[in-house]
Design brief:
The protein is α/β, with parallel strands linked by helices. Helices cover 41% and strands 17% of the residues.
Length: 385
């Protein structure tokens, strides 16, 4: 079992808040992390119909059966439980880390958390495996494109399950549509929504164009925005907002869209092999998608907001990612495997324009991390480290 980087943040929050919620995309390892972090707590799954009916019929008495708290999986299936947890927390002894909630339907889980448990809950967003987690587990190959192509979902690295990549992703999308999307949109629009997912894969790393997607799918731009919010809430895609720093230049106001997992992106692009990816026009976008995903994982695994942006001015000058963390990092992502000085030209220009302590970095596919002319070239094996 691979120890997750989010473990320390889970334990930190559990020492403070009486309720912990672990959210994230389907099959990212939420239940496994919860049970690993709290092995002595009783485990309850509301996939079990009997347990679900008991909790619905009398949620307060149901909680009394777990005086020391519990790990409650698929908690969103019993919305009545959230008010009962609120009352139990407010009226009883304050016990940090008493209830651990997980769920695969992010919409209902988040809605219940917001309505009932605000101020009482610590939230962790768990994405699929990171490069660093796979490295520690001895599962890192020497070819970055193995991971760009296959992605990072834990079941694909479970040697006991023998999943074939394409079969697993096909089932993943079908399950996502049936379990998460159905009920959120009109049933007659399911095929159009699936087409939107496919089109988003072709646009990962690009400025979002609502009108273009609207024309391509045949629904209104307002509907497109609503559907994209569903994809974002379920961690299929992520938006980077434009950097609004004061450089005295006009900047774009439109966010950039990224897939959260490059393997799912490549599957939706109908790429059949790593070799096919290497010859595809989306190769650079897929590498950039992996880099942004690793930066997201680093922040989420620490229990922090992403604080990731990008910069582009009206003349087209762009820096792929701005990480506004304790220090600010301007990061260019390249699919090259050799260090070339020209790869750092944009970050150098940005750092000079900023005139502060912003640090320039180039994420590239080489094996050596080094510094050249004040810019740090970071090997893909250390992305998010």
């Amino acid at each position: 079992m691979i120890k997750r980087d989010a473990y320390d943040a889970v334990m930190r929050l559990a020492a403070q808040f009486p309720v912990i919620a672990i959210t994230g995309p389907r099959q990212s390892g939420k239940t496994t992390l919860a049970r690993m972090a709290f092995p002595d707590k009783r485990y309850v799954s509301f996939d079990d119909k009997n347990m679900r009916e008991l909790a619905v019929s009398n949620p307060r008495d149901f909680l009394k059966a777990f005086p020391d708290g519990a790990v409650i999986d698929e908690a969103q299936k019993v919305p009545e439980l959230f008010d009962a947890i609120k009352i139990a927390v407010d009226n009883g002894e304050y016990i940090p880390g008493k209830y651990i909630l997980t769920g695969s339907s992010q919409f209902r889980l988040k809605e219940n958390i917001t309505d009932s448990l605000a101020g009482r809950i610590g939230l962790i967003k768990l994405l699929p495996f990171s490069i660093q987690e796979l490295d520690r587990a001895g599962l890192l190959s020497n070819d970055a494109y193995d991971f760009v192509f296959n992605g990072f979902y834990p079941p694909l690295y479970d040697k006991e399950k023998h999943f074939i990549r394409d079969d697993w992703f096909e089932n993943y999308i079908d399950t996502y549509m049936d379990m998460d999307v159905k009920g959120q949109i009109n049933p007659s629009n399911m095929n159009a929504f699936r087409k939107l997912i496919q089109l988003c894969a072709t646009r990962s790393g690009q400025l979002i164009n609502y009108d273009d997607l609207s024309r391509s799918i045949g629904v209104s731009a307002v509907t497109i925005k609503s559907w994209l919010s569903i994809l974002e809430a379920s961690y299929i895609i992520h938006f980077l907002e434009p950097d609004s720093n004061n450089l005295g230049k006009s900047i774009v106001k439109t966010p950039k869209l990224y897939f959260v997992d490059p393997g799912l992106m490549c599957y939706l692009l109908r790429l059949d092999s790593k070799e096919e990816l290497l010859l595809d026009d989306h190769k650079g976008a897929a590498v950039e998608t992996m880099a942004v995903s690793e930066l997201l994982k680093k922040r989420y695994n620490e229990g922090k907001k992403s604080s990731l942006m990008f910069f582009r001015d009206k003349n087209g000058f762009e820096v792929d990612t701005i990480a506004d963390w304790k220090h600010t990092f301007a990061i260019e992502v390249k699919s090259n495997s050799d260090t070339e000085k020209k790869m750092s030209s944009n970050v150098k220009k940005y750092v000079k324009l900023k005139g502060d302590n912003t640090q320039g970095m180039v994420y590239y596919l080489g094996d050596l991390t080094c510094e050249i002319d004040g810019v740090r070239y970071v090997s893909w094996k250390e992305w998010g480290k």
